[in-house]
Structure to design on (294 residues):
């Protein structure tokens, strides 16, 4: 699968019917991903999304982007099988379906909703400011609303410009309308997920002085973190571990409601259970629903 230039797969989601949606970016003039050919409209990388049935048959594939370089980051699905794609895009982005949006400068946070049946763009949003803003992760909650996390600044949809740093933002399933956003200086949210009650959990890296809503997370140098908000964006809790350049990369909710966290550590990190990791290591740790070791 692929073309003449560099083409990448970035993320995969499985819907309630076991269909598979995959996203990435491609730099080739055109590619075929099991079905018809999709064409790159620029001389840079563009986003692609492709859907396969539970048996692996091609259902649809779509491409979109602008004349700046576009990077896909994540994909999720709602209960109807519609797909939501997050990316980092710059300039004017043509999402298809007659939807073309001018960015705020640098790179912006891009979110698009694609129809389950044919991949047609139902709505799209560009969020951010004049500098470089990045969406690193996406999750869809039980109501079908979309959570996006990453780093950036500017306007996330409420008309208020904020400085660069950590962000988590929630948007409506129906039209991408702004629900809420939470920001903090000196951090990046590489992973985000939601619980059965609609709480939002994010992970990444931050400075010790970063305040997610309950005061500075910890004294000292940079940390990897977990932070929890309720379904309305109210702060619940936060915990930090390690030092620079440790970071959490992804977080998921287990069937019993506990949290599974993975990432990278380069310092000696004690998560509180008596185990300490040092050197360049990947890790997997389990926490209770409020960020404590079980």
């Amino acid at each position: 699968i692929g073309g003449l230039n560099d083409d990448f797969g970035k993320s995969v989601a499985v819907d309630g019917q076991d269909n598979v949606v995959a996203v990435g970016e491609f730099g080739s003039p055109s590619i075929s991903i099991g079905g018809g050919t999709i064409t790159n409209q620029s001389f840079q990388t563009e986003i692609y999304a492709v859907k396969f049935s539970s048996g692996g048959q091609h259902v649809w594939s779509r491409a979109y982007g602008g004349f700046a370089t576009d990077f896909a980051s994540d994909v999720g699905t709602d209960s109807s099988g519609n797909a939501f794609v997050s990316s980092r895009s710059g300039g004017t982005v043509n999402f298809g379906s007659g939807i073309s949006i001018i960015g705020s400068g640098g790179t912006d946070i891009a979110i698009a909703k694609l129809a389950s049946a044919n991949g047609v763009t139902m709505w799209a949003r560009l969020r951010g400011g004049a500098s470089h803003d990045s969406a690193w992760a996406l999750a869809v909650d039980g109501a079908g609303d979309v959570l996006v996390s990453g780093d950036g600044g500017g306007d996330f949809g409420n008309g208020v410009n904020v400085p660069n740093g950590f962000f988590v933002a929630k948007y409506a399933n129906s039209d991408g309308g702004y629900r809420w956003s939470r920001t903090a200086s000196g951090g990046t949210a590489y992973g985000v997920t939601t619980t059965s009650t609609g709480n939002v959990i994010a992970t990444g890296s931050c400075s010790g002085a970063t305040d997610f809503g309950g005061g500075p997370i910890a004294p000292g140098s940079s940390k990897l973190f977990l932070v929890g908000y309720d379904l309305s964006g109210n702060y619940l809790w936060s915990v930090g571990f390690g030092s620079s350049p440790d970071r959490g990369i992804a977080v998921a909710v287990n069937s019993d409601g506990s949290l599974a966290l993975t990432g990278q550590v380069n310092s000696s990190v004690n998560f509180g259970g008596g185990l300490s990791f040092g050197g360049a290591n990947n890790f997997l740790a389990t926490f209770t629903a409020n960020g404590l070791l079980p």
Notes: The longest strand covers residues 99-114. Residues 213 and 235 are 6 Å apart (CA to CA). The chain is about 0% helix and 60% strand. The chain has a mean pLDDT of 91.
